[in-house]
Fold this protein.
Amino acid sequence: MLRIRLVEEAIADAYPRQEMRCPVHLSIGQEAVAAGTAAALARADLAMSGHRSHAHYLAKGGDLRAMIAELMGRQDGCCRGRGGSMHLIDRSVGFMGAVPIVGSTIPIAVGLAFAEKLRGQTRVTAAFLGEAATEEGVFHESANFASLHRLPVLFVCENNLYSVYSPMAVRQPAHREVFEVASAHGIPACQVDGNDPEAVFNQVVAARRHVRSGQGPFFLELKTYRWREHCGPGFDNHIGYRKEAEFLDWKKRDPLENYSRKLISAGLLTEEGVHELSEKISAEIAEAMAFGRKSPFPRGLADFVYSIQP
Amino acid sequence: MLRIRLVEEAIADAYPRQEMRCPVHLSIGQEAVAAGTAAALARADLAMSGHRSHAHYLAKGGDLRAMIAELMGRQDGCCRGRGGSMHLIDRSVGFMGAVPIVGSTIPIAVGLAFAEKLRGQTRVTAAFLGEAATEEGVFHESANFASLHRLPVLFVCENNLYSVYSPMAVRQPAHREVFEVASAHGIPACQVDGNDPEAVFNQVVAARRHVRSGQGPFFLELKTYRWREHCGPGFDNHIGYRKEAEFLDWKKRDPLENYSRKLISAGLLTEEGVHELSEKISAEIAEAMAFGRKSPFPRGLADFVYSIQP
Amino acid sequence: MSELSYAEAIRDGFREAMRQDQSVLLIGLGIPDPKGFFGTTSGLREEFGGDRVMDMPCSENGMTGVVLGASLNGIRPVLNHQRLDFALLAMDQMCTQAANWSYMFGGQVHAPVVFRMILGRGWGQGPQHSQALHSWFAHVPGLKVVLPSCPQDAKGLMISAIEDPNPIVYIDHRWLHHVRGPVPSGHYRTEIGPLRVALLGKDVTIVAISYMVLEALEAAERLAAQGIEAEVLDLRCLRPLDREGLLRSVRKTGRLVAVDQAWACAGMSAEILACVVEDPQTCLKNPPRRVTLPDCPTPTSPALAAEFYPRADHIVEAVLEMFGRSREPGELALQPGIEYDKPNPAFTGPF
Amino acid sequence: MSELSYAEAIRDGFREAMRQDQSVLLIGLGIPDPKGFFGTTSGLREEFGGDRVMDMPCSENGMTGVVLGASLNGIRPVLNHQRLDFALLAMDQMCTQAANWSYMFGGQVHAPVVFRMILGRGWGQGPQHSQALHSWFAHVPGLKVVLPSCPQDAKGLMISAIEDPNPIVYIDHRWLHHVRGPVPSGHYRTEIGPLRVALLGKDVTIVAISYMVLEALEAAERLAAQGIEAEVLDLRCLRPLDREGLLRSVRKTGRLVAVDQAWACAGMSAEILACVVEDPQTCLKNPPRRVTLPDCPTPTSPALAAEFYPRADHIVEAVLEMFGRSREPGELALQPGIEYDKPNPAFTGPF
Ligand SMILES: Cc1ncc(C[n+]2csc(CCOP(=O)(O)OP(=O)(O)O)c2C)c(N)n1
Ligand SMILES: Cc1ncc(C[n+]2csc(CCOP(=O)(O)OP(=O)(O)O)c2C)c(N)n1
Ligand SMILES: [Mg+2]
Ligand SMILES: [Mg+2]
């Protein structure tokens, strides 16, 4: 969590220098979802995500340097500069891709799981999605197919209450919960506090056990909140689509602060420990930034359009 | 019901003469859904349907002669020969159109209801759909929007267990019902015996009352069975995708036979009455066939591509 | 070499590819149906089992994503649509996703998936069951697009499509399914790219796509009777486009007619003309011509549909005009007794 | 007449149409957002209320059907997409449904609905946020397709689109939003169909679409300095296509360059060439040229994106080659200091 937070903040700080020339969707405030989920997954497990994928990529073990270089559009980026922030991938750790069309990786992730099942493999696939993605028909088509074939897929739905500037109230009926829609497809589903990393972890452990045992998919709805603007490095509470008070309320539920306080009071961590860790991570980030900046810009506009390997 | 049955049988009989040169999807066996639903709707209410729409069109009051002429591709057809069996319309009775892309009229019907609401009107829109249409994402998108805005729309889902040759088992999870998916969108929903016209009628009356009162959409799942082949005039139990025994079971539940027997034993109808009615309808059908045959073939290939009326 | 129908040739292609590679999967609405998807899948479920020849829910967009995902994870799926029109629900997954995945991830992923679609026509298929939108796919880098017109290519291109590491759009035409022709037995590939010279000639190049190759060959026969030797090119692959093959022929004949049973505007027929005329080494003796659908949706009435579809007559007319010969009176009139809305004389409906 | 930005002109168009007709409805993801959809909807919710300027769920296909249905029942909706790419989820509803409803029901229904899409470009929008697929829509009878390039047309065409009884695809380019120009006040229509002669000239016809009109005008200026008078045509309407307007210009100049920030293959640039060369009365002095995107998806890296997009330089080069003049060395090289991935110098991201 701390690493995700510091990376995202470093990106926010660096962004105005205009060396990361692509839309960025930061996960500050939502770190517990990524951290708690990925901690409960095996390294071999697979994952896919959407536009807001930095945290998922990092938590799954994705290469920080390759991510920063990608944001900078460099040859050593995780997509060799062709993708940018909205298209992260690190196959070596099972992070199989992210794309910014809302909902579009959901069936693709289900397809990964379908292939696992067809080949008799046992890896679990985590499909990260925002709550707005459940409004796309393709979510339902994917859920139906996953349920029908009892595919080993775990839907991880981050409900941060907004889709860009649009609140839930203008998008989904008030008298039902997101996870209930999933469960109507015959998929076990539940709601968890997405700002509590332990709760997330525990629930994902249980869900993953269910999925791995061949009983089919599981759907988790994790309530959380995005601190910064939908896209970009700044804050945007002042423009009026949400209330400052709401933001402050959620800030009190800072997953990072609360969890480290909890660990400290339990004697499992010390202030100095946190400080040291921060220092170490900051050094790693600085190194990644330097790495990105040193990496050459890509050449070969038309490379990779077609695969040649059979 | 009797009229629908006789019309469909007449089409089946005439089809091999190759004067109805388009795919036809007959509703024989499923008449109670159309009849029971339409009887509970007001004439001013609106309706849309899909590929299997003859029954819905006729029950809503659509012009028989225009339908037959349309199947024959004539100028006096309800689409002036441009549409054929899979595209029926009769605006004068609120039958607002049918198209054969599975699921595609569902949002359009919701749009009719949306316009009603925006303009402060009170007509109810019935969206007829097959159970396979609930597998299309667009069904869920439509249900979500209708629920969100409490639109005056009644989803009438005919569950005849098959999509072409594909049984439910290869398309939807066994451990949940179709109507439950609708209700997860916050829409009151229930299952009714689709072969019992009175049960259908009573439930539609109640559902329509709910919808008209401004409480939003209602979803009805009506269990029924198609007797003939998916598309075309024949029977196809012999090709093996379903069991003859299943068909015979459902044939025992013939909505027409059972209901007329019920009415007769209640003294509300006589054998002769049925016979007389059949004769009258047969004459009407013969007249419609003659009308269609006499109608000229259309001319003007490129007419109507664009509307000119502002 | 045996004589097979085009539909049987497709099935043969499936069978060879599936025998060769355990990971090949056939999926689609009704794929294992008793009628065998117009005979193109008959017997395959029996041979390869229900896990490899499988039905699916009526969810085109989701299932396209699912097969894309499976293709990224060791499976080689062929997703089958009974009508091209149904695939329109899946444009995001085919064009924004599948076509881009190799490029946007810097060549790290391969998506060996085949999107097979059948182009409908006739017998009242009408405006929503016969849209010929192959040009849309030809527009999109990252896809390959093939439309075989003869049984031999139907099989060879299917095997190549399945074995190609890229997403392929494979379109077969309903009116070709019954057409018979020689088909090599066993496993072979037809290269995706080169066009096929269906007939050699020196006076005019007729470039045709899919079913229209048959009409073009018939036109060529009639033109030959009038002393005009047409070269007929079967543009069996729209992307990559065999520009060299096109230019080679047109440089020889100096005349070009592009024939496509599709709309003209911003379609493949426009591309054929454009790619020839922008070549500085090619000199045309006459303005090139297009023989395409009229600019309106498919009408359902057989009376209108007969006039809707271009035929050999129209091709002959276009060529004759180039040679300054006027067509015979009534040349374009419909012949009484011919049923223009049937794929073959044995057809009696309903689909 | 006042000086407005293109974005403000769109908003003005909305406002006039909404004042004129109570049944006009603006809907789209984030339509009432505080940033006003790039400034194109600012203030409209305040003036017309939340019932007429409304947000929606993230359900492109369903919502397209919903607005189509509403348009059949007395409402005139404008459905807005922040990126054209999102509309790909709704191809069935736009092309198989909306485009066909008038035709297939024999002219009994009208679908006065506008599908507005913004074409993304630059600042790392990348392969899924900047696909320029206007040619797809141009291919489909039943739709009309407009892409205004100046503020005056942005407003006039929006009003015409809303008041037209047919489904209209209205595409505005992100890089035009800040461009300022004279805009008549009050209600006026710009006819859907005729192209706009943006600059008169006699030596070569440059036909450009959307944002590329600006690049074409810049190219014309540079060509003028070299003694070549280019005529620049703004093809603001792809369907119906003003073939006469095109031919009139090319008959005069005898030279043709089609400029489209889109893929070439089976695209609108091919149509422009085809429709000119198939005309028997038009005689070209040189082979026509296309200036388009390279045949690959949009790369995200600014280094690649700068090379990806065609510029005035490329147009100048194409024209000079026609006149047998070789380009100056380094003409196509990127200029240091210019940021090719920004819509305007004031832009600092993120979207
Ligand atoms: C199909 C599609 N529609 C619209 C958009 C524009 N868009 C980008 S991010 C976003 C918000 C999605 O909200 P949610 O899924 O809740 O994720 P969050 O941003 O809240 O993390 C939207 C609507 C898109 N990228 N794709
Ligand atoms: C989008 C789409 N996919 C597939 C088809 C092919 N198709 C035509 S009818 C049909 C069956 C639909 O089943 P259901 O909705 O249950 O209706 P029924 O035929 O049983 O009345 C299918 C799959 C289609 N027309 N449209
Ligand atoms: Mg959200
Ligand atoms: Mg059914």
Observations:
- The interface with chain B takes residues 29-30, 33-35, 54-62, 85-86, 89, 123-129, 294-297, 299-304, 307-308, 341, 348-351 of chain C (CB under 8 Å).
- Chain C has a mean pLDDT of 96.
- The pocket of thiamine diphosphate (ligand 2) is lined by residues B 51-52, 100-102, 130-133, 158, 160, 162-164, 230; C 29, 58, 60, 82, 86, 89 (CB under 6 Å).
- The domain at 196-322 of chain C is CATH 3.40.50.920 (Rossmann fold).
